[in-house]
Amino acid sequence: MTEVAANPYVPLPAEILSVHPETAIDFTYRLAWPGRPQPGQFFEASVPGLGEAPISVCDFGEGYIEMTIRKVGRVTDGIFAMRPGQTLFLRGPYGRGFPVERLEGRHLIVAAGGTGLAPVRSVINHFVRHRDRVQALDVLLGFKTPADVLFRDDLTAWARNTSVRITVDRPDQAWQGHVGVITTVLPHVEIEDLGAVEAVVVGPPMMMKFTVLALLDRGIPEDHIWVSYERRMSCGIGKCGHCKINDRYVCLDGPVFNLSEARWLID
Question: Where are the domains of the chain?
Fold first, then answer.
């Protein structure tokens, strides 16, 4: 069930239930919320006197949602100063999420770069919990450095019954994993039936561009690839025009797009 305020301009109060540090500048906030958004949707989070910012949902459950927020400006600075028991204000959820039902029964490849992992975390969690609902699940994750790796507890849990490959651009002396951009781990994914593959790609624009090209080179049809342009969000309701690409408002028509549609949208 998805609940939206009767007045889309008015945010609703959401109590902060917990705060979990992921990295030095990325914290995951669990917030009391009555509805269940779609994976890939986003909210506008606001702090009175400071403004609002679009934040994607990274997971949700009965009576709560979770958001992983990066400390990058005035609004997020204000959020980082808040503690459990305090109130953050939300309006939403907005946008079109990932087509979870279509992904069922398929070989699912999820490729995420950096904080692009946040909006697909709930998709991964769903299929890790219901592993019998996909033929195979390959999770490919790229980060700048080992210190930027998100959701470390989740990564350990996912790896128990899912193929998880992690790579970093700039390793430290302790790093013993793969080094390189995310496309360097894609060739290690075994694909038996190209027609059965569905791929989800989220991350920085250049990462998405080259990962999509690599998937197409593997023979995966473009209408089996899904991307998210969630970084373009602003007002969330198609009024400010900040997210408009050609004739599409990303906040209304997206942020999740099938590649057959997104290839004509120059991000």
Answer: 12-94, 100-262
